Amino acid sequence: MTSDGPAGTVVSVSRDDEHRFSKPVVSSIRLLAGFGVEGDSHAGATAQHLYLKKRNPSAPNLCQVHFIAAELFGALTPTGYAVAPGELGENVTTTGLDLMQLPLGTLLHLGAEASVSITGMRSPCSQINGYLKGLMKQLIRTDAAGTVERRGGIMGVVVTGGVVHPGDGIRVELPAGEHLPLGVV
Question: How far apart are CA 21 and CA 29, in angstroms?
Fold first, then answer.
């Protein structure tokens, strides 16, 4: 199942060639198939996030591209947290998509060429509290029924390379068959 036109929009793009928590906003990023964001410290065919790399350096990199919805920033404001694109380490800030509800294997088509297959939810780490004290509790919450709600964005692998700019449309292509919920990667 594919949406006819863009379902969402790229608000901002970010990358950093060093392992820092936040990523600087840039005018465009180039996605490389099977590798990630050109020039980003998390790009690679195998695990590049320091924690994952330490556990298993030959594991496939399921975290090549990190997406966060700009709507999260607005939801954090009333709780006392002012967050802007790139500050939570994402590569692509979106609007108009409920990223956390997309099923595993969803293809996000970004702009004219690029596509990313969604592999799972980001597992926010304690570095978030180093950035803004207490923010972790806002990104991983437990509701009244005891269900854990993760709001730290989603991860994916690049299927088709291409350049992505702010303002590019995002078209959603749902996977065929049963839609599986996202796990943590």
Answer: 18
Q: Could you identify the residue written with the tokens 């591209």?
A: 65
Question: For tokens 């180039």, what's the residue?
Answer: 30
Domain presence at residue 182: no
Listed residue (76, 50, 162, 53) closest to 113, CA to CA: 162
Decide if 137 is inside a domain: yes
Q: 40: which residues sit within 8 A by CB, 6+ positions away?
A: 15, 16, 17, 23, 29, 91
The single residue listed with the structure tokens 């304690």 is: 126
pLDDT digits (tens, 9 = 90+) for 124-183: 777 888 899 999 999 998 888 999 999 999 999 999 999 999 999 999 999 999 999 999
Report, as an integer, the average pLDDT of 49-66.
91
149 assigned to some structural domain: yes
55 phi, psi to nearest 5 deg: -70, -45
Q: Report how far residue 155's alpha carbon sits from residue 185's, in angstroms, rounded to the nearest whole number.
A: 8
Asked whether residue 114 is assigned to any structural domain, the reply reads: yes
Q: The domain containing residue 119 runs over which residues?
A: 8-173
Indicate which CATH number applies to the domain containing 69.
2.40.33.20
Number of structural domains in the chain: 1
